[in-house]
Amino acid sequence: MRTLTEADVEALLDPAALIAAIEDAFRRRFPSMTLPVRTQIQTRDGILLIMPCYEASSDSFGVKMAIVHNNAERADRVQASYSLLDPRTGAPLFQTPARWLTALRTAATSAVATQHLARPAVRSLGVFGTGQLARAHFRVMPLVRKFEQYLVCGIDPARTRDFAQKMSAEVGLSIQPVYPRTCAAESDVICTCTTSPTPLFDGNLLRRGAHVNLVGGFQPHTRESDDATVRNARIVVDTFESALAEAGDLIIPLAKGVITRTQILADLHQMLTRKTAIRRDNEEVTLFKSVGCALEDMVAAELLQKAAI
Asked: Distance between CA atoms of 235 and 287, rounded to whole angstroms?
């Protein structure tokens, strides 16, 4: 069995192909998938996440194991691996490191949501965060919208300036480091890619017709958005079961009565099969809350397996 490196994964996994594959999977394959809510185990130094996925119709079977370390300063804070398995024997058919796979599949899912929820005529993209997940979003989001302005906001101004400079060179775009207020107020599409346990910006600053992708938080007690953001938004989630079990961005305002369950209008499958209308005009704020879905990992691993072969 060929052993891949993270560099191999980044070289072989095509972002445009991944966007198309994830959209197709949520549209067509999702109903036949077994997707249990991921197991979370608190360890001494972080959280162990176990994410299995099985599709009976194709006999596809895979599992991701990831450790998210508590220390946000670690360059290797996320460690992950993915295995495609023989469903009859459990033997591994294909294994790969999954740090970049996880970041890229998350950004590709944000891109699917943005393609269907954001206004066509958006011009500015704002990203909160300066880590691997933010990097993946700057790589992927321009594939679904023609932005003219790119903004980034991090905790540390010096680190944010350095990230903006390096990212600009990597993707061939002019990315400007800004403060939270500017990023929230001047972005048509916002992606939150942080480990922050508390809201990143004042939701009252959002532009009319803005679209927000909340992708960093995955625990019930953490949130990247405030009450104003979710109160005024039309909300889509990746999957209802995981979002209502893990997404503090929704669980906290639901518990406070800020929003009701009926305001969460659809999951990705329902949105893509047009069972629920989300954006009705160019003035509404739309919001996609992602906690990460094992289907996305398996689709990415399948593409990577084909590319490696």
From this structure: 5
Q: Which tokens hold the place of 38?
A: 């991921």
The dihedral through the CA atoms of 199, 202, 203, 207 has a sign that is negative
245: domain CATH number? 3.40.50.720
**Cα–Cα distances in angstroms (integers) from residue 223 to residues 18, 147, 220, 227, 297, in the given order:** 27, 27, 8, 10, 23
Q: Are residues 299 and 281 in the same domain?
A: no
pLDDT digits (tens, 9 = 90+) for 75-132: 677 889 999 999 989 899 999 999 999 999 999 999 999 999 999 999 999 999 999 9
The range of the structural domain enclosing residue 187 comes to 106-294
Cβ neighbours around 116 below 10 Å, total: 19
> Cα separation of 189 and 288, whole Å?
11
Residues 151 and 13 both lie in one domain: no
**pLDDT tens column, 18-52:** 999 999 999 999 999 999 988 999 998 889 999 99
Do 159 and 204 lie in a common domain?
yes
